[in-house]
Amino acid sequence: MRTVTQDTITEAFLATCSKEVDPRLRFILEQLANHLHQFAIKTGLTHEEWRKGISLLRKAGEISDDERDEFVLLSDVLGLSSLIDMINSAPDGTSSSVLGPFHILGAPALPVGGDLKRDNEGATVVIAGQVRDADGNPVRGAAMEIWQTADNGLYSNQDPTQPDYNLRARMTLGDDGRYALTTVRPAPYTVPTDGPVGELLHGMGRHPWRPSHLHFIITAPGYRSLVTELFPDDDPYLDEDAVFGVREDLIMEYREQKPGDPLPEGLEAADRLTDPYYRVDFDFVLVPEG
């Protein structure tokens, strides 16, 4: 390698890979190295700029923990997370959208029709719909995970005043694929700006706001898993999402309701809906694996 040059360094790197390496891994590394090296050459990257980039990555590692992943957030604000979602979304199914850095495992079970709002402040929302296939048939054996911010724009693992797993649940659906729950209407919020991603956004002159949204993960035997979000059609940041997560088919409508209006069957909080509230009806479409 004593004669390596700018023109041959990518080839030299690939030559170090074993011939027994997995073909897919080799292809990904080949493309990564080629684009990374070309990026450095075309920008004339300086040592100081390289050090700043390394420092950003180091800080992302230092601030990350089991409840916050700054690397995911970095991927989100660069548009990489959304691009991967779009590449892998099935054309006949509901679009996927970003998982986000605040998803945590172990959410408690909530029955269909259960009350997720409990004593959280904010406007009540009734959400109902069906998980079905592209032909309109209910998907049997579906499971749904739901999580969101409270009315103050914070997730439970950001806010020490919230109980553990507040506004997080997992729901097992019946053979009809139907789901229903009551919750609180989340507010728009900013992505965390107290770390290196915040420094990056500031340096780019970008705002950190996300439109309000509800997170879902939906799984079912024989179907591709769906990770997605739903966004209200009246949110001021719908066209300015800091992480590029909005899709046309993920926009929902909060319809104002009054006590006595029809409700989904078996809604646990039905008797407590004595004030005006909102309703959202949204169906998710899953596609078969393979």
Task: Give a structural overview.
By secondary structure, the protein is of the alpha/beta class. It has two domains: 9-45; 75-285, Aromatic compound dioxygenase (Protocatechuate 3,4-Dioxygenase, subunit A, Sandwich). 24% of the residues lie in helices and 20% in strands. It has six helices and 13 strands. It is globular, with a radius of gyration of 22 Å.
SSE layout and pairing:
Layout: H1 9-15, H2 23-43, H3 47-63, H4 70-77, H5 80-88, E1 114-115, E2 124-132, E3 143-147, E4 168-172, E5 178-184, E6 189-190, H6 196-204, E7 209-210, E8 214-219, E9 226-232, E10 251-252, E11 255-257, E12 277-281, E13 284-285
Parallel strand pairs: 1-5, 2-12, 2-13, 9-10
Antiparallel strand pairs: 2-5, 3-4, 3-8, 6-7, 8-9, 11-12
Helix pairs in contact: 1-2
How many β-strand runs? Answer: 13
Question: And the CATH topology of the largest domain?
Answer: Protocatechuate 3,4-Dioxygenase, subunit A
Main CATH class of the largest domain = Mainly Beta
Question: Distance between termini?
Answer: 43 Å
Per CATH, the superfamily of the largest domain is Aromatic compound dioxygenase
Shape: globular
Radius of gyration, CA atoms, in whole angstroms: 22 Å
List descriptors.
alpha/beta, Protocatechuate 3,4-Dioxygenase, subunit A, five-stranded mixed β-sheet, six-stranded mixed β-sheet, 6 helices, 290 residues
